[in-house]
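Project standup — Tuesday

K.O.: blocked on the structure for the chain from last sprint. Re-posting the sequence here as requested.
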Amino acid sequence: MVRYDPAFSALGNNISPGLARYLFSAEDFDVVHGHSHLYFSTNLAAFRCRLGDVSLALTNHGLYSQSAPEWVFDLYLRSVGRWKFEQADVVAC
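H.V.: unblocked you, prediction finished:
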């Protein structure tokens, strides 16, 4: 496991450029685990897996965010959130 401190947060979501650099420079992943569809880091993981031959496992802890307004999250679920679920090879709830 690797942890990178966030550079900033938006809507309760940590943004970490260090994690992005790590994901896109590593070549020996078999599986990448996205902890929740709610996190920006899972966007990075899904995108990284889509670019290569790496499986994405996604854990869903709940469908709606508790830190974003409901209308924002409804839009998110119909776009980026849906895309993340579609990229996953396996989803655990």
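K.O.: great, moving the ticket to review. The first strand starts at residue 8 and ends at 10. The chain has a mean pLDDT of 81.
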